[in-house]
Amino acid sequence: MRALEQYDVLSDEERDALRALPLRTRLLQKNEEIIREGDRPTHSCLLVAGFAARTQNLEDGKRQITNLHAPGDFVDLHSLLLKRMDHNVIAFSDCEVAFIPHGALRELIDRHNHLSRLLWVTTLVDAAIDRAWITCLGRRPAIDHLAHFICELFTRLKGRGLNDGNSILFGATQVELGDILGMSTVHVNRTIQDLRKLGLIDWEAGRVTIRDFDRLADRAGFDPAYLNQWVEPR
Amino acid sequence: MRALEQYDVLSDEERDALRALPLRTRLLQKNEEIIREGDRPTHSCLLVAGFAARTQNLEDGKRQITNLHAPGDFVDLHSLLLKRMDHNVIAFSDCEVAFIPHGALRELIDRHNHLSRLLWVTTLVDAAIDRAWITCLGRRPAIDHLAHFICELFTRLKGRGLNDGNSILFGATQVELGDILGMSTVHVNRTIQDLRKLGLIDWEAGRVTIRDFDRLADRAGFDPAYLNQWVEPR
DNA sequence: CGATAGCTTGACTCACGTCAAGCCCGGTGG
DNA sequence: CCACCGGGCTTGACGTGAGTCAAGCTATCG
Known about the structure:
Chain A is α+β, with helices and mostly antiparallel strands. Chain A has nine helices and ten strands. Chain A has helices at 2-5, 12-19, 79-82, 102-111, 113-139, 142-159, 174-181, 185-197, 213-220; strands at residues 24-28, 33-35, 43-49, 52-57, 63-69, 88-91, 95-101, 167-169, 201-204, 207-210. In chain A, strands 2-6-4-5 form a four-stranded antiparallel sheet. In chain A, strand 9 (201-204) and strand 10 (207-210) form a beta hairpin. In chain A, helix 4 (102-111) crosses helix 5 (113-139) and helix 6 (142-159) crosses helix 9. Chain A binds a DNA duplex through residues 141-142, 173-175, 183-187, 189-190, 193. Chains A, B: One of its GO terms (cellular component) is cytosol.
């Protein structure tokens, strides 16, 4: 509910409708698969706690993460309409998820036009994030790319109240970061060190601290507008 | 209408509703801006003929294209809900577009749940394409990336009946291709030549001919499933 | 007290970018 | 009808950002 309220206000009736959704929750360990490519899910999965990642695996064993998800995100809302998964979703950390039957979601969106639009918005914001990742991958050097990713992650988490001052808890290994940024592990390591040396961030034991957000954002060319974090009639 | 029918069947009533939409068409020359970053459009733009591209410009003058659109695609349906454009859309070739007032679209989706879902699907497929681009950019070498792009473009156009046997008409310059693939112009040139030498494609004067789709797709690791080109209740 | 996962470092390689020049072709103007 | 021009394509020489390989270091865990 909080996730949807980032984009527009909810009526009491809409809140009730959301509360009435049947949930089946589950705890997952880091790296457990939530959904596999090729699946035809009958439920959509809402992330309650922890991080989840969409991944695509290549023939030669390489892996690319195409988006990350934070608590409050629907991780596969699109399977409601696309039916067949074209990628995997895994638990990126230990996490808690809630499964909601497609039937219930379908009724919800058929009855509540405004809620339906807000759910649509969440998938559109995911797409906006994908576009930003494409631009970073295609046209930014590694250090700017990493800086952009940190800005984005921090801003997204802050939007949900999941930051801790200038820090966030984000327990990704450097191998995983490589899969996010499309770089080798070694280069991830060196790039983090570059940002550290510039006095822009600290990164230790799963805690990322931003020492100077403005300078970091400036280097990254980060403009948070694409995250659509404002309330507006939609 | 044909674009929506790729994903599910339409009822006569739905066709009528679509036909009743008020259109204002316009001809645009290659490189004309259709919508600019920061705009708050009051109309959404449907591409009728030609190609359009979403672009993001960096501070230092670099440019990245984040998606291409073919006739039948809505180029900024998301502005109906996101309100503010986070990127530019330009005419990638001379093209014809139709503008539809947001008010009319809004009524359409509020009245016709099934149409609303199908329009949602089109934005979800765009997102699936973005994910494929991310994976190509992050983890594939240039030649595989180009091969994948050609497979995707061909398959998308074929889905609309816009292919010409094994060829498609696609008048992009090598500079523009570089902006699509996130590579330098020189490297685009050499990569095209590599594919030519392998006997996989011809590319001359705006006509791309696929000499062996299976081998091309195999090299690219291309699996068309993510394009969702099949009819199914949605 | 090994075993293991993750981080760090150095040496080397290579894919791709940059720079610069030449070529081809169609369009324009004298 | 020709000279000129500019855009797009091609090529070679060279530089560099990032990948690969391999080793050592550190912290955590049984």
